[in-house]
Amino acid sequence: MNRSGGAMHPPPARARRRRPRAFRASVPSLIMTAILCLLVLPPLVMLFRTSLVNYEDASAPYSLINYVKLIEDPLLYISTFNSVFFAAGATVVSLLIGATVAWIVERTNAPFKWLAYVTTIVSLGTPAILYVSAWIFLLGRAGPVNQLWKEITGSFQPLVNVYSIPGMMLVEGLLWVPLVFLLCGATFKRQNADLEEAARMSGGSVFDTVWRVSLPLAKPALYGLAIFIFIRNIEAFDVPVLLGTPGGIKLLTSDIYLSMTRVPPDLGHSSAFAIVMILFVSALLYLYGRVSANADRFASVTGKGFRPRPFDLGRYRWIGGFVIILNFLLVLALPVLAVLWNSVTPFVRGFSLKAFSTLTLENYVHVLTDSYYLQLALNTVFVAAISATVAIAVTAVAAWLSVRKWPASGPLNQLASLPIIFPGIVLGVAMIQLALRTPFGLYGSIWLIAIAFIIRYLPYGMRYAQPAVMQIHRELEEAANVSGASQPGTFRRIVLPLTAPALLAGWLFIFLVAAKELSIAVLLAGSRSKTVAVAMFDQWTNGQAGEVAALGIIWTIAMSCCAALMMALSRNDMKSQGTL
User: Fold this and answer.
1) According to the UniProt record, where is the region Disordered (predicted)?
2) Which helix (H) or strand (E) element contains residue 14?
3) Helix axes 13-51, 371-403, angle to 10 degrees
4) Closest among 157, 164, 532, 223 to 377, alpha carbons compared
5) Which residues lie below 8 Å from residue 522, measured CB to CB, with a gap of 6+?
6) In this structure, what is the dihedral angle of CA atoms 177, 181, 182, 187, given to the nearest 10 degrees?
7) Helices 371-403 and 545-576 meet at what angle, rounded to 10?
8) Does residue 171 contact residue 162 with C-beta atoms inside 8 Å?
9) Within 10 A of 481 (CB to CB), how many other CB atoms are there?
10) Among 514, 539, 552, 191, which residue's Cα sits nearest to residue 339?
11) 3-class DSSP assignment, residue 108
12) Residues 478, 488: Cα–Cα separation, whole Å
């Protein structure tokens, strides 16, 4: 009986059928949500749990003692200030050089544009550890730059101290110039040249036109890129450890690394440190999202058929060419020349005519014939390929479900993007703690590194997969469904072929980044699961600079081929979408 006294009737059969059908429709999203939760949530939960463990008092197993000690430690504030100062300076260097070269290449008729693309391709394939070691050689106290300064001036004080915060800013800033060039190039490529031409016709100089027209149009993109690069510089590991630690400069990432590598490791301190760093990065990412959300207000280009005209520099075009050549020298030529020199010398020594009589290929012979280096290459390729494949596969499905708004697909985009809050060194700390509590023998294995890389690069996969799915009109999938295709069949026969170029470019990008990753692998690698980047780090700290250089040259050549393929696929994909 119901409240009105009437008999209760069962729900109509149509309503009973609707509920099971709605549940079945949400099953793919629920499965994908469960997979993403299983990947991204355990490291965060484990990190937070360990940060609350009181290792000094067994009677009070959980407390805030690690956070109290961290806040009371003055070194935290010194490290935070140094990290922010270092990241800000490096960001300025990257933006000044990268954005300037991007505007010259994409919007002007300057010569030598091909040099900028060569610089970017080779840099994408160069491990950061190799790049940093090259600048240590070039700018070291006994390096060629300071030696030349000493001979010219007679001064015993070096011109450049690479083990200082300004030296670290320079090296880290040059590391990010290729990425800034690519991202700023995409922004400048889509700007309306009519506004710049109108400014020139109104009497504006080249500088006035760039300052008052080009930069304001690109302001939201540049602000967002500046925040993104700043975050990546805060998370940097190679430069803080290789340059900051010898110079006695404390930074957040190097402090976490040192707390984990001391004997015994201070898990509570490092976990609390990691949580604080996650909160800091999350605040920066929120700011990045707010800035990016307002970018549409500055849009000046519509329509797929838009083709920007180059900006005629006139007699200044050779100045633009000189800037491109300078970028080539700083970002690529000088570091590669230093690495080549170290790879053919029996021991580290400066450039000199006398040294030419001692040049040898012994380091290359040793690297190419020693099975140890072959195992390193196989480990690196395996880990990078597995992480790229799984990350792209998971995010391709998640992006499709999210873009098409399947039932229960709301959390997919947020879950896949969540690992972006993890700095590499922080994720490494979390994965160590997870591995110590699993019965599968993950600790020190190559599978632990692969799982960490998959988690780390899920946001990268989403960045490639989501825009690619959004480019596919829904009518193509609806036509397949009307023709009798199932949803899995539609995804396999319609969505995957059309998104293949973008997904392959994303796979190659993740492969390249994973092959260079040091901050995660340096904590997780065991004796038989080292990657090329970890081996380079170990050998450099042990004074084996010649073998590091030879291995780096061979590895850079191989990875540069992958980078060239990635850029070719990306450009073809953009042409197919009408954006070039």
Assistant:
1) 1-20
2) helix 13-51
3) 140
4) 532
5) 237, 257, 428, 533, 534, 537
6) 140
7) 30
8) yes
9) 14
10) 552
11) strand
12) 13
Contacts of 183 (CB under 8 A, 6+ apart): 221, 225
User: Rounded to two decimals, what is the model's pTM?
Assistant: 0.83
| 407 close to 25: Cβ distance less than 8 angstroms | yes
Helices (H) and strands (E) in the chain, counts: 28, 0
542-559 tens-digit pLDDT: 878 888 888 889 988 888
Q: How many CB atoms lie within 10 A of CB 423?
A: 26
Q: Which residues of the chain have pLDDT under 50?
A: 1, 3-4, 13, 15-17, 19, 296, 298-306, 577-580
- The contacts of residue 112 (CB under 8 Å, 6+ apart) are 321, 324, 325, 328
Amino acid identity, position 436 = L
Q: How many residues does the chain have?
A: 580
Residue pair 35/414 in contact by the 8 Å Cβ criterion? no
Residue with tokens 């939760």: 37
Distances in Å between the Cα of 547 and the Cα atoms of 364, 538, 551 are 7, 11, 6
Rounded to whole angstroms, how far apart are CA atoms 42 and 430? 9
For 405, the token pair is 């708004």
Residue corresponding to tokens 């995409």: 186
Residue that has been written with the tokens 């690690």 in this structure? 66
Q: Give 300-357 as a DSSP string.
A: ---STT--PPPB--GGGHHHHHHHHHHHHIIIIIHHHHHHHHHHTSSS-----TGGGG
The secondary structure of residue 210, as a DSSP letter, is: I
Place of tokens 């880290």: 172
CB-based contact 250:239 (threshold 8 Å): no
d(CA 190, CA 299): 9
Helix (H) or strand (E) holding 35: helix 13-51
* Amino acid of residue 224: G
Residue 172 Cα to chain centre, angstroms: 13
- Alpha-carbon radius of gyration of the chain: 27
The CA distance from 95 to 569, in Å, is: 26
Burial of 289 (0-12, 13-18, 19+ CB in 10 A): exposed
Per residue, what are the HEC states of 244-288?
A: HCCCCCCCHHHHHHHHHHCCCCCHHHHHHHHHHHHHHHHHHHHHH
In contact, 368 and 459? CB cutoff 8 Å: no
Note the pLDDT tens digit of each residue in 444-484. Answer: 889 999 999 999 999 888 888 888 888 787 878 778 777 77
